[in-house]
Amino acid sequence: MVEEIRSQVRLFLEECIAEREQLEKEVREVGMLIQQSGAEADKLARRNAEIANRIRQMESSRSTVSREDMRELYAAALREQGRLFLMRGQVETLQANEAGQRKYLALLNQTVSVLEDSENGVLGLASSETMTARSMVVRIIEAQERASLSLSRRMHDGPAQQLTNVMLQAEICQRLLDTDVARARSELENLKREVNKAFQRTRTFIADLRPMMLDDLGLVPTLRRFTDTWSEEQGVETEFVFAGSDHRLPAHIEVAIFRSIQSLMQNVAQHANPSRVQVTLQLDGEVAEAIVQDDGVGFDMDEVMAAADARKTIGISSIIDRVQLLGGTIDFESVLGRGTKVTLRIPEA
Q1: Residue-wise over 40-74: b if at least 16 C-beta within 10 A, else e?
Q2: CA dist list (Å): 326 to 15, 145, 345, 348
Q3: Residues 310, 317: contact at Cβ < 8 Å?
Q4: Where are the domains of the chain?
Q5: Among candidate residues 222, 78, 96, the one with its CA nearest the CA of residue 147
Q6: Cβ neighbours of residue 195 under 8 Å, at least 6 residues apart?
Q7: Angle at which helices 301-311 and 316-325 pack, to 10 degrees?
Q8: Which of 112, 120, 188, 288 falls 20 to 30 Å from 269 in CA-CA distance?
Q9: pLDDT classification of 191: cutoffs 50, 70, 90
Q10: In degrees rounded to 5, what are phi and psi of residue 313?
Q11: Is the C-alpha dihedral spanning 201, 202, 207, 209 positive or negative?
Q12: DSSP codes of every residue in 203-237
């Protein structure tokens, strides 16, 4: 029996090591792509500045510039702005992917370390504990897949749809340059505004994936800003309450708490129809407690969990997994017509 358990541990260890080696290779490749894309974005930015300067010069001496030259310069400006927008979006997407890969790599390193210790007899894992380790990794992979599905849906409904509209408007501008330059200029201004809106929405989209403020300033300022922004966007009175000692937590704990609250607030926005929401965070040096409470329509927990499992979407089940994997607990209190209160507790260390 012991030999069988040891064999299972060794097999699982080999799988994790192979996965780690592959992931390390991918992280290096993404790092190179970030450098290359960043350098290309810098070149495109300089190119856009040059074209913008040429357009200003052209507009100051319009009478001496041919219609064909104007058309070509405006078309060049449109192409270069589009390329710059896409390249910057690619850099930010790659950076977000790299951050996710590095977190997964850190988790794999911890898993390999534990398995190596167990193989050497330091921990003496029993078969049930080995299966628990396997189950944990399975849950992590499933959570990543649900997150990827949610990401693809949001990308399709948001930035991708806006970019499609931008492309259509660009084609209209191109046709107008041959027939009505004045109207083409007006449409180019509209196009510029649409590109800027798409860019800002993409930046918001990327910030939702990984807010830089969380790394720079920590959990409390990030949650305060997040709740303010959420309140403004949703038109719902929202209060953030903090109690305890304002100190930094381990990065993975801060991310887990932020992601959980972010997901809970998305659920509130989509389903609760509240008039008021309160987010509370308390840090006492041992346990981080976060509460999200709304006065919305409430829900039946069993029905919601069954629907989430059927759709395979990121939501309550993913929040539960995230909290439990960190040794925490999560409690739901909801009454139909009287709102919902969700309390999660995660050890600070």
Answers
A1: bbeebeebbeebeeeeeeeeeeeeeeeeeebbebb
A2: 23, 19, 10, 10
A3: no
A4: 2-209, 212-347
A5: 96
A6: 81, 82, 85, 166
A7: 90
A8: 288
A9: confident
A10: -105, 160
A11: positive
A12: HHHHHHHS-HHHHHT-HHHHHHHHHHHHHHHHT-E
**Are the C-beta atoms of 339 and 277 separated by less than 8 Å?**
no
The sign of the torsion formed by the CA atoms of 108, 109, 111, 115 equals: positive
Q: Are 133 and 8 in contact (CB under 8 A)?
A: no
The residue assigned the tokens 């994790």 is 16
| Sign of the alpha-carbon dihedral angle for 53, 54, 55, 60 | positive
Render 36-84 in DSSP notation, one character per residue: HHHHHHHHHHHHHHHHHHHHHHHHHTGGGS-HHHHHHHHHHHHHHHHHH
Digit-coded pLDDT (tens) for 220-255: 999 999 999 899 989 999 999 999 988 888 888 888
pLDDT of 29 > 60? The answer is yes
CB 159 within 8 Å of CB 205: yes
Q: List, edge to edge, every strand of the sheet that includes 237-244.
A: 237-244, 276-283, 287-294, 339-347, 329-335
d(CA 209, CA 21): 25
Question: 112: exposed, middle or buried (C-beta count within 10 Å: 0-12, 13-18, 19+)?
Answer: middle
> Is residue 295 a contact partner of residue 276, using CB atoms and an 8 Å limit?
yes
Residues 109-145 have pLDDT tens digits of: 877 776 676 555 444 444 444 445 455 555 555 555 5
Supply the pLDDT for residue 159: 62
